[in-house]
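Re: the 467-residue chain
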Amino acid sequence: MSNKTNQQWGGRFSEPTDAFVARFTASVEFDQRMYLQDIQGSIAHAKMLTAAGVLTDAERDDIIRGLGEIRVEIERGTFEWSIALEDVHMNIEAALTQKIGITGKKLHTGRSRNDQVATDIRLYVRSEIDRILAEISRLQQGMLSLAEREVDTIMPGFTHLQTAQPVTFGHHVMAWFEMLSRDYERFVDCRKRVNIMPLGAAALAGTTYPIDRNMTCKLLNFSAPAGNSLDAVSDRDFAIEFCAASSILLMHMSRMSEELVLWASAQFDFINLPDRFCTGSSIMPQKKNPDVPELVRGKSGRVYGHLMSLLTLMKSQPLAYNKDNQEDKEPLFDTIDTVNGCLRAFADMVPALESRKESMRNAAMRGFATATDLADYLVRKGVAFRDAHEIVGKSVAFGIAEGRDLSEMTLAELQQFSDVIDADVFEVLTLEGSVAARDHIGGTAPNQVRAAVVRGRELLATRDDAV
């Protein structure tokens, strides 16, 4: 190492890096979380260099042993990270050289920090996607349990936040399940593009050494090596795509959170959130605040911001690698942490939700939730739908004036709006009758909700081989 600078690349420089610039440009404080991926990539690279005749077997073994010792030190918390060495890669390489001597300096043969960091990030994101997929499945498993418990619990379904038609709580929870199924698929699809190996692209143009990229690719379980060296080191599409998938997931979770916040309020009183997921007020002793769903709702904006940061970061970069790309890690890492935290909180909380069945049913009785059922009844009696719509509208207006639901009117009162209405009308005006009548796949009938739960469990059972 040059006496003029602490940098391992300092041979070309005539003066040391300014102390502030060293701190300003260093990334080790946040990229050290990729130590495991950096070590894995270096071991694979060393094995490939040995097969290519660049390293001896003994040198390879020394490198692998030294990297193993460094991993232990990092995981024990005894490894000393240095800002002067800029990043996780240089810190580990310097420590390796200190341990095993000049052989440590040979490890970087045929690679650059450009392809090294691109490889590390992909390995890291890949492992985090697998973790996220597992947590989505855990949350969905909790939703299936909740839906199964609440398959017969009547509640109002809403459009425009106005009572629309009766549904069941179980059916509503299965709507959440469907949202998360799409999120799962997006992350699986994103993983395919993450799982491309940049290693071997070196700085931007490949290397003159006789490397075997297919060997390294196999050792690191990538699906294929990147096809163009310029693109390999500069591509961050996969990080943007990950943040886009995360943004949609958090949008879904924010929608769920909004419903939980509303439903837990005294005005709705649809659910009880267990105390362990709530906090109190510093001044109002009666308060029980739904902090977990509120915070998840708030964190959606944080992830959206990271997506915009990465899009903006990449929009003007010429090929190939630029220092700008160092700014990809903090938004990416925070997105990963945020998604994992939100999923963990929900996966713990959702199965513990308790429904207020009476409150839900009473709410469904308000707002003339069976009006559409009455219109359908009239159509089955031969009334044109538009005429039926008008008839039911007048019936609802009468109910509003009288302060009574359709099911609370007498047959004579209903018949004043249409003489085709008969005594069997009350079978379709009950909440249970309304819910049970929508007996088709995806419908609200309890047997259909149970079937959806079964399909959901079958889906989860197939996921072990999904990635």
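The two ends are 44 Å apart (CA to CA).
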